[in-house]
Amino acid sequence: MATIKDVAKYADVSVATVSRYLNKKGYLSKEAEKAVAGAIKALNYKPNSVARSLYHKNSKMIGLIIPDISNPFFPELARAVEDVALTYGYTVVTCNTDDDVEKEKRYIEALKQKYVDGLILATNELTADDYKSYQLPLVMLDRSIGDEIPSVRSDNYKGAKQATQLLINRGSQFIAHIRGPKRVQTAEDRYYGFKQAVEENNMAHIVIESGFDLESAKQIMQKTLSEYPMIDGIFASSDVMAAGAMKAAKSLSLNIPNDIQLIGFDGIPLGEMLIPSLSTVAQPIYKMGALSARLLIKQIEKQLVERYHYNLETTLLERETLRSEQNE
Amino acid sequence: MATIKDVAKYADVSVATVSRYLNKKGYLSKEAEKAVAGAIKALNYKPNSVARSLYHKNSKMIGLIIPDISNPFFPELARAVEDVALTYGYTVVTCNTDDDVEKEKRYIEALKQKYVDGLILATNELTADDYKSYQLPLVMLDRSIGDEIPSVRSDNYKGAKQATQLLINRGSQFIAHIRGPKRVQTAEDRYYGFKQAVEENNMAHIVIESGFDLESAKQIMQKTLSEYPMIDGIFASSDVMAAGAMKAAKSLSLNIPNDIQLIGFDGIPLGEMLIPSLSTVAQPIYKMGALSARLLIKQIEKQLVERYHYNLETTLLERETLRSEQNE
DNA sequence: CTGAAAGCGCTTACAG
DNA sequence: CTGAAAGCGCTTACAG
Asked: Which residue of A46, A110, A272 is in closest CB contact with B214?
């Protein structure tokens, strides 16, 4: 690979001149400009990013810290972050932490040693103080943690409340909420939205807790449906959990939506693939990813950040796991 | 952040000595060792990866080039690559090319400027010559391209043949194969496997082509099932396409597996979430990712690579879209 | 066993 | 408008 020295020699100027040309900084005579341009072309010269990094103490890389890319919520998010990053000339390094604090810390250390310019965090483990100690531009995705670190979330509370209300409007009389783990903020918010709606309507209900995976949701839902045959509506805290609930209902020969109406949360592609297709509270996943990337880059580039916290609207997607309006 | 100079000053030795300590190279007196260790601890010193990169012309980063992380085949692959990379101290940069040659080239250029150590390619666009011109350690994932570049694939031909044979054994009389685009090597291989099986059995069949997405598969399958009501078995070139076929059958009130048996390809988590759960030819996705990462790292570290080309076994997963053995 | 020096490929004050 | 020089934070021959 050609270096700036090779270009300078070829163009018969100094490396400083080549550098000025590259960065469009400082004065350059027309001749010098032409000579350098020619040399760059002739040698197929590309500036070395590592050398630039060393000088500038930046890397044009951002880190995306997520629990697990295999969880179907994250690929679209990751995709959005990458698309925006590419637009602004950044590269993204995705790190799967499996919700392991030590792993997360190690990853962040490694990234700092590489001069990453900033971090998007979609994990739940560290505290605001930990994060501040990194002295890096940051964005929290899907959670917030104090006022100082910008955050992008969707309105989990409101979406959950709407979903529950819809179940009620469509005639469910006894609603089960299968919620996610207590330590996960979004699971909490959704639970409170559910709670608000059932209480406002004085609705019979039950809340059960499960992991976010299909199998746990299926198991616990099977048990719950057997014990509480009066359940005729389910609000699941994620689409994958909803798929588990569908399996559970099927195994008990319960028909969806006739015997039980079902609504999930997230709006991942899976929902459409199910039969019946899954009604859900769709989060603007791509938008969340894109927005957090933009927020991060603004901070990195020291531009004005007008707003620090985003609570994005969700969309109710009525599909086949809900009875039609006529039945209201 | 502390630098090697700070450490040297603190320990009252030269930076060369600190460097020797860091790299466990060359002789070091016990005292020097102790002093340096103390200084590193006291200053919480971490070596700067960028400076190291500049000297060594490497980066401990590998690039993973895929069409689109949103395609459910890729997250698990990406996850495996990252897990193995982490083990060996590498960071992975995932790049989505959308099967766009220019985008792929730009990504690779950008990675080279950052001194990436090697590339895992799961894309279909460039030629062996393009790749060789990059002068980087390479592994082809899910395709192969000449003998010189190592490759990791699963045995698409054999898996497809087995799937088709299974459909036949279970009593299907007229089998449709919904295949992927011609330009995709895996789609071709699966098609040939299908072809071989139907020909060996003298089985009535039809082949239709579709994109790998749900919607195209559904549309074209709807049309095909209407035109060919005698179809009683479908082999889909991917699980997502199979989900589309399920939707199509459902829309025509056809029962799976009673009216039509169905088998997909890939073994992504989606298959289990469907109702009925999808029978499929499971690729060892995680293993493919892990193996390609190991192969790449071996090349990077100039270790002996015993084998260049891997054709991994698939596993037939019999689930609910196939009739039970009694019906054979 | 240890340090001074050169070099990896850039950028940017500084002097001219 | 342009070049020589110092510096970003490391590593490694080389000399002692």
From this structure: A272
Between positions 176 and 205 of A, the ones with CB within 8 A of B are: none
Chain-chain contact of B270 with A273 (C-beta, under 8 angstroms): yes
Pair of tokens at residue B131: 């790749």
Got the DSSP string for B277-298? PPEEEE--HHHHHHHHHHHHHH
Q: What tens digit of pLDDT does each residue of B4-36 get?
A: 999 999 999 999 999 999 998 878 888 889 999
Residue A101 lies in domain = 58-153+286-313
Nucleotides of C under 7 A from a protein CB: 1-5, 7-14
Q: Which residues does chain B have within 8 Å of residue A53's beta carbon, measured at their own beta carbons?
A: 50, 53
All residues at 6 or more sequence positions from B267 whose CB lies less than 8 Å from its CB, including other chains:
B239, B280, B281, B282, B283, B285, B314, B315, B317
The residue type found at B82 is E
Collect the ranges in chain B with pLDDT lower than 70. 326-328
Say if residue A240 is in the same domain as residue A263: yes
Is the domain of B110 the same as that of B206? no
Q: Which of residues 84-143 of A touch B (CB under 8 A)?
A: 91-96, 109-115
Are B322 and B197 part of one and the same domain? Answer: yes
Rounded Cα–Cα distance for residues A44 and A270 (Å): 46
Number of domains composing chain A: 3
Query: From the centroid of its chain, how far is CA B90?
Result: 18
In a domain, A110, yes or no: yes
Q: Residue B222 and residue B125: Cα distance in Å, rounded? A: 31
pLDDT one-digit tens code per residue, B126-152: 888 888 888 999 999 998 888 889 999
The rounded distance, in Å, linking the Cα atoms of B17 and B57 is: 22
